[in-house]
Amino acid sequence: MKKSRRILLIVFLTVAGLLVARGALARWVITSQVKAITGMPLQIRRLDLGLFRPRVVAGGIKLFNPPGFQDKMMVDLPELSVEYDLPAFFRGQVHLREVRIDLREFVVVKNREGKLNLDSLTAVQKAKEAKEKKEGKKPAEKSNLRIDTLHLKIGKVVYKDYSAGEKPMVQEFTINLDEEYRDITDPTALGSLIVARALFNTTIAGLANFDLGALDQQVRNLLKDPLGKAGRIGSETVDAATGVVENTLNKLKKVIE
Which of 39, 74, 134, 196 could serve as 122's disulfide partner, Cβ 3.0–4.6 Å? Predict the structure, then answer.
């Protein structure tokens, strides 16, 4: 009897140890990849592990703005689920078979000094650097990340402009985006994709004077097929930004006349 209890205790402690190790690994994967894309502080309130399946669900995720912005939160992400390849981690690779991002709210803020929180994102900074150096057509740098399938949902995008006066100008855009992408190997391009798709069906780029064109090549490089979905999205974002500017100019002309 004592021997059986001892065996059961060993089995229990082994399973518990494995779950703790998997939990630490899952948290590291999520936080490290989000940090690589954004460079912003991150909070995860809940982490659920699949007992018999290599899957983790993170809940209550908040991405915060850097100092100097009146609003604390940039992104409200109620749920992020990841199905991962455990053996790949022991080979130094981050292979994620499926990633589901359910982004409830994306908040774009212009502070009193006229600075945008978007410009603090690592993905945006790298995209702008690539454009300035005319390196956009070069292949993306190799990374150890690979995502087989990405499901991206974005509910609402909010724009707050604190440079306009004492009270911020606030505009909300419900976009209800629901899209799927495959074979992602560049975390910077992934960040560019999320920002571009969040702003595409809004007038925020024009209102905030944000250069969506800087994200264009990063988004095009997201998929191997340059004429595929990512390429079309890149062109659409530039066209959308151009259309916003043209509409604004036409309205001004009518007012003057």
Answer: 39
Q: Report d(CA 219, CA 213) in Å as an integer.
A: 10
Q: What is the pTM of this model?
A: 0.73
Say which residue, 106 or 192, is predicted with more confidence. 106
Query: What are all long-range contacts of 248-254, with beta carbons under 8 Å and residues at least 24 apart?
Result: 248/206
Query: Would you say residue 90 has pLDDT above 70?
Result: yes
pLDDT for 28 equals: 63
pLDDT higher for 197 or 2? Answer: 197
Q: Which one-letter DSSP state was computed for residue 209?
A: T
Biggest CA pair distance of the chain: 96
Helices (H) and strands (E) in the chain, counts: 7, 7
Kindly list the distances between the CA atom of residue 19 and the CA atoms of 13, 48, 56, 80, 219, in Å, as whole numbers in the listed order. 10, 10, 11, 19, 36
Domain tally, the chain: 1
**Among 62, 46, 148, which Cα is nearest to 100's?**
148
Q: With H, G, I as helix, E, B as strand and everything else as coil, classify residue 59.
A: strand
As a whole number of angstroms, the distance between CA 63 and CA 58 comes to 13
DSSP string, 95-141: EEEEEEEEEEEEEEEE-TTS-BGGGGSHHHHHHHHHHHTT-TTSPPP
